[in-house]
Amino acid sequence: MTIRRLPETLINRIAAGEVVERPASALKELVENALDAGATHIAVSLKAGGRSLVSVHDNGCGMGLSEMQLALERHATSKLPDDDLSLIKTLGFRGEALPSIASVSRLTLASRPREAAQGWRIVVDNGVAGAAEPCAMEQGTRVSVEALFERIPARFKFLKSERSEQGLCLDHVKRLAMVHPQVRFDIETEGRSLFRASPDMANGLARLASVLGPDFADNALVVQVNRDELNLTGFAGLPTFNRGVADHQYLFVNGRPVRDRLLLGAVRGAYQDFLARDRFPVLALFINCPNSFVDVNVHPAKAEVRFENAGLVRGMIVGGLRETLARAGHKSSTTTSTAALGAFETGTSPVRASGNASGWGHHAPPVFTAQMSEMSLAYNAAPSGRITSITAIEAETDFPLGIARGQIHNTYIVAEAKDGLVIVDQHAAHERLVHERMKKSLAEHGIKRQVLLSPIVVDLDEATAAGLEDRSHELAELGLVIERFGHCAVIVREQPAMLGQTDISGLIRDLADELASYGTALSLKEKLDSISGTMACHGSVRAGRHLNADEMNALLREMEITPHSGQCNHGRPTYIKLGRTDLEKLFGRR
Amino acid sequence: MKVTLERAALLKALGHVQSVVERRNTIPILSNVLLEATDGTLKFTATDLDLAIVEAAPANSVADGSTTVAAHTLFDIARKLPEGAQVELVAADGRLALKAGRSRFQLSTLPKDDFPAIADGELPFSFMLPSLTLKQMIDKTRFAISTEETRYYLNGIFFHVTDEAKPALRAVATDGHRLARVAIARPDGAVGMPDIIIPRKAVAELRKLLDENQGDVKIELSSARIRFSLDNAVLSARLIDGTFPDYSRVIPTNNDKRVVIDASTLAESVDRVSTIATDKTRAVKLAMDNDRITLSVTSPDNGTASEELAASYGGDALDVGYNSRYLLDILDQLKSSQAELHLSDAASPTLITEEGDTSALYVIMPMRV
């Protein structure tokens, strides 16, 4: 067997394997090119979810004929003017996308720069370029990719259904649309519009709302942090506005959408105290940093990046988000009150529902079956709500959560605020207040550490042990004192006294995994928090406890000044607020 | 089977065996107690496959026989019967009829042949211990048994014999934060016995039986099983199959600072000052100075508490923090004697013994406060 140089088409196909995985990745490359060309309007058209056609039409700077021919060759790009990979300002830079796509599809490239009299068109059929011919077109570039992977059965077989390929295409473009609010985007498939975003010249929230849904705008907090040369902006959703999957976290580094474990871990760490383990926040964060600070040349599809100082970035995200959430104070999401509104029945008349759906009293005689069912005492419990004496809300007392008007079922406090009606879950609210107080005192006084009688040796692999050793000072702050023990083990000398008797080696292994993938010691924090959470639960006012007016008002006032009091420890709201307009809507006054 | 016995005798025997039976079982027969009537006695057997108790109660047996019936149900019935009642048990046709006064119960049964037989195998080592001695060994160590399941070899009391100058039988328990060790003179017959770990549940059941036992307890063991024969009951248990760590390394030998103080006085003070500790850790600080101990607790919510006690101490001033519950557990074992604390510094283990008596010793690890 002799060694030979591979033909160019084969090289392109191999490169295509890395860059072009499916229609969505081809589309991403093309839209990125359009953005790099300075387009202000990008129109995407798909057929069969991109399987038979992906076409991108932009009004960017365009290319002349010689440039077009060069662009179809590998490693040809306009994007690295200084030949310096450490200063990448554009989305693309590898110069691989176009030839790679062209090698696995029938690609039509048409372009006209502003000053040229006419446009040119080149068709490349699976790596074989045809002759250039003049064509009529406006300024910009149009790239159509037809029959992607048609000649590569190995890829073609693994394409998903039209619908899911289309969803992926949409997702990629939406991510880019989020970070370029000033660019107009249109996506259509077979004459039907899938996504349309008009330019948003303001802060970009309107654009995010068009991608993430209108609810996001109402429940987002502005994030704005600067640290040295780093800059974090964006919008973070309130903890009560959460989702069951982590898909709705959009992170961008220098205008580049990324899915980086470090960044996702930092987000999880920031929200960790406000959400149950299986709930995830919705947010869009934009990190801007000097190009030399970040290495984007890590991943062929550029989904991962590397930071020069990962700790600084993580700290900025966690700190920035926590501060933002703390500023929100007791705010709880509007969707909860919308859901509450939806739950109200516009009752026809307050007739007690009878067991019979028809409403007409065909009551079957009660039949006793052999199986005894638990019989409840049907004593028609009188409503236990109580009313506190009505005092007019004075003008100078502008309490966001209002003045307590009564307690229902000994569980919920009803308060009247200037701008609406507030209903508070007394147990959830008080639990959160106690939890916040305990967290504060832990932060002030430190975590007490129990020294172990016999230190516990935990065997790990060498890299993990080294990783833990590097972060040992951080763990010590959380009450876990570890030392390196030989090459492949750590030794635990002290543990947080709060944990009592616990599976230390299991904890250490979890921590090592998390430090490796997320960069934070989440599970230890979560464990400590869950203990203080349980204690908070036992130390707080239960549902069913009668509260008098002063107690209720005191609770409301404390909620107003305590950060994070809008959600309980599991991300559920502690109160809902129905605005005056909501009430008017309920009664058809609006 | 037809047998009559006093309600008190039934209740006592069931009380001992029913706690062996787990509340929830995947094997139905394990929820049952085996009743065996043979001339003049009714034998109760309950097991969870690891642990088995056989207890005999005096009964008037009209017809010998045996059956099995739900242990907790029978116990609950016995508990609620009036005092002094005569209970008649008749097993026939897959049911057990229970008659007492005007109450009648028909309980469903499972065939006795399904009841697992308890095979102890050969138990080559055997010795006798007075009830009181065994009771004390258990009491002084069981509080330190670990409840954390991953280090299963700490979930019991470790018994072993030593051949040092004075041959001894030692009982040791630790949870990684504190340790308790009791030693008694080695009984005859224990020479060369294997090191064993008696699981927590067996210890708890044995302790209950010992309360009402007068005579000596016969202990027979192999490296896998142990059997305790008491006056009316026999408890046999599977031992924990594991290696107890070499605990002798954590018992400090050159702690030079020595404090002597009345154990119950110290315990009461610790208990008093730790009232204000709200968090789970309940840390109490002991400041030792010239013939004086100052106890203090600081709680961010409640404020502070301190108490000064006279004690005999001659070393340099020293501050040490402990988990107050751990400290109280140990002081409770010393009762009203003088406690002797041997300290080195705030991060090294503290040794606590009764003054002048090292048969029982306790080690507690300080807390960083």
Describe this structure in words.
- Chain A has 590 residues and is of the alpha+beta class.
- Helix content of chain A is 34%, strand content 23%.
- Chain A has 18 helices and 26 strands.
- The longest helix of chain A is centred in the C-terminal third of the chain and has 20 residues, at 426-445.
- The model of chain A is unreliable at 345-381 (pLDDT under 50).
- In chain B, a hairpin with a 5-residue loop joins strand 11 and strand 12.
- In chain B, the strands form 3 sheets. Chain B has a 13-stranded antiparallel β-sheet with strand order 5-1-7-8-9-6-2-3-4-17-16-15-10. In chain B, strands 14-11-12-13-26-25-24-18-22 form a 9-stranded antiparallel β-sheet. In chain B, strands 21-20-19-23 form a 4-stranded antiparallel β-sheet.
- Chain B is of the alpha+beta class.
- The model of chain B has no long low-confidence stretch (mean pLDDT 91).
- At the A-B interface, helix 12 and strand 23 of A face strand 27 of B.
Q: Keywords, please?
A:
heterodimer, A: 590 residues, alpha+beta, five-stranded mixed β-sheet, 26 strands, 23% strand, globular, B: 369 residues, 13-stranded antiparallel β-sheet, nine-stranded antiparallel β-sheet, 27 strands, 45% strand
Q: What fraction of residues of chain B sit in β-strands?
A: 35-45%
What general form of chain B does the structure show? elongated
If interface size is counted as residues with C-beta under 8 Å from the partner's C-beta, which chains form the largest one?
Answer: A-B, 25 and 32 residues
Number of helices of chain A: 18
User: What's the β-strand tally of chain A?
Assistant: 26
Average pLDDT for all residues of chain B? 91
Relative strand content of chain A: 15-25%
The major sheet of chain A is characterized as:
9 strands, mixed
Oligomer: heterodimer
Number of strands of chain B: 27
Structural class of chain A: alpha+beta
What gap, in angstroms, lies between the N and C termini of chain A?
Answer: 83 Å
Structural class of chain B: alpha+beta
